[in-house]
Specification:
Length: 223
Amino acid sequence: MFAEMRSALAISATTDILTHIYALPPSQQPSALSSIRAIESTAMLAQQPQPGLLPLMEYLERRGIQKGICTRNFDVCVVESGPVSHLLTKFLAGKTFSPIITRDFRPPKPHPAGIEHIARSWGLDDRGERLIMVGDSIDDMTAGHRAGAATVLLVNEVNAHLVRHEHTDLVVERLDELVAVLEEGFLGREFGGEEEGEEEDGEEEDGEEENGEEEEEDGKGAL
C-alpha cells in the first residue's frame, strides 16, 4: 500500500508520505491527500485482523482497561467508511476506543505528540511513561520511545529488521501474547546478557497507516 502511495505522489521510498504532502503548497495538498485516501479505501477491503486481536481485546474489556487508537490513516469522523471505521465495525464491534488520533492530528507519528495527547486525555501527567506502545512500524516504535512508553513490536516478515532496533523493547508474534505480559509484568529483552527495558505499569497499541495500542495496568490503555 505505501509503495503505491509513493508511486502516486512520485516520491522516493525514503520520503515520508505525510511530511511530503504537508510540505506541498496548500492548493496541492487536497489532491494529494485524496489520492492516498483512495488507495487506503481500496486496501481496507482486504483488511484482516492481526493474529490474537480479539482475545487481547476481550482481556482488556474484562480488566476495564481503556483503549485508544493512534494512526496515520484518515479520520474516521470525516469518512465514515474509512480504514479506522472499517476496523472497528467489522472486527471490533461493541468495543470502545477513545481517543482516536488520526493524521489530522499534528504532528503525526513518529512524533510522540499523539501518544502524549492520549495520556493527558486519561488524566496522566507523565507523558507516556506508564504506557506501552504496540505497533508494527518504525514510526510506532519511535513515537512510543520518544514519549517514554515501553514499546512492543508485532513482528512479521516485513518488519523483522526492527526486532533489534534501539526503540523496540519487546517483540511478539501475536497480540494475545500481551495478556501474559500484562499479567506477569513487562520486562524488556535481554541482548548479550544485558537486560533492555524494565517493568511497566501498562500497555499501548497503535492504529494504521501504522496501528498501535496503549494500555495501563491500573485501567488505562490505548490501541
